[in-house]
Specification:
single chain
Length: about 425
Amino acid sequence: RPERLLEVKFQYLHDVTNSFNKILAMCLHRNILHRATSLQQVLDSLQKMPAYDENDLWREQEKHTLGMDELEREIIKPRLGVEWGFVALVVVVLLLTALFLFTNIFSIIFRRSDKPFTFSGFTSSDTLKTDTAQSNHRVGGEVSPSQTEYGMLKSAQRQSLQGQPLDRLNIGTSTAGKTAKPAVKQAPMPDYMVHIPAGSFGFGRLKENLNHNVSQNGFYISKYELTQKEWVKYMKPAAVSLAGDNLPVENISWESIITYCNGRSKAEGLDPAYRIEFKGKERIISCNFNANGWRLPTEAEWEMAAKAGALFEYSGSDNHNDISWNRDNSPARIQPVGKKNANTFGLFDMTGNVSEWCWDWYDANYIRAQQRFINPSGPDTGSQRVIRGGNVMNGEGRNLNILYRDKGNPNRGIPYVGFRLVRSR
C-alpha cells in the first residue's frame, strides 16, 4: 500500500539479486528525496544491471540456534539479593521525585512555608487552575487584565440592562452563587478565512530546485493580517507604531498571541488549539493541530500559503511593489490591510506591511536537515520562534524574499511584527 511506504522502510526481496533490489529501493524509497525522479532514470539503471549471478542473490542470514550444552553455559543464575536491592533503591528515588514534583514539601522543608502539606496531582488541559486572586477588577477607571486558564486576558466588562457587570469571555470570573450560563454556540467560519487545499510543495525551495519535499494537510488561513480592532476586542492595546482600527496589530509577543488565540476560541465556542502548563514560572505550550480553535500557522503552512502554487520571489509577484508595503513605497509606516494585490490564493500582505509570527521554534539548519516530510511543525525545542514575510523596514531583495526566515524572542513584542490566524477546520 502506498501509505505504508511513508511509515515502513523498503525491505530487500529474497532470492532477488542485490542490484535489482537496489533499483526497487530507488523506486519505493519512503523519502521522496531519495526516489527516482523519472521513468528514464529507472530504465537507465535497469540497462546498467550486471548479468545474473546466483552468488549475487540476497538471502537473509540464517540464525544460529544454541544447542543444549551451549544453552546451559549461557544461563546465568540470578543474583536475587543485588537485584532486589536495586529495585528498592529505584522505588525510593521515584517516591522522592514524586514528592518534590507533586507536593509542596520542598517549600515546607527549605523555605519554612506555613502552608499545609498539599498534593497538586497531575494537571489536565481541562482543569488548569484560575488564579482567583487576580479576578476582573477596575483600578482608577482602567480595565485591568484577568488571569485565566489561558493567561492574561482583558476583562472587557460592560454593564447589563440591570447594571450588573458582564464578562465578555465568560472565563476567569467566579460563578459562586450564580446561575450557570448556557454553553457558547460555535461561531461559523468567517468569510475572510481561505481554505488552502492539501498538497505537496518544495519547502525552502524556489526555481533552483523544483522537487517537492513536503506534504501538507489542508487548512484555513485569514486573507488579512490581524487588525488592531480585532486585537483589542480581547486584549489590551498594543504599543503599535501607528494606531488605527484597520491597521495590522504589531509589537506583540508570540506568547500573547497564544493567549489571544485560546481566549477567542473559548469565546466563540471552539476547542482551544493550545495547551498551556506551568513548570515553576516557565510556560510550557503545546499545540493540538486537530482542534478547531484559532492558532498560528506552522512555518510550512505559512510558506505553502504564501507561494500559492507559484514560484515568485515575493508572495504573488516578482515585483515587490505590486503586492507589498515595504521600505521603498512606505518606509517605516504600516498601512491598512488588504490594499495591495493578493496572491493566487487571495491572501493579502503575505509579503511586507508587518512580518508574521509562526508556530515553529527557529533553527537555522531546520529546513536543510529536516526529518519530517508530512505536516512538519518545526524543531521540538528552541529559544526563538520563526518570523516570516518581511515588513515596511525591508526593501527589495533578501529580507522581503518569500524564502527569507527571521526569528524573535517569543516573550517580547517586536516592532513591525504581527500575525495572521489559522484554523485546521
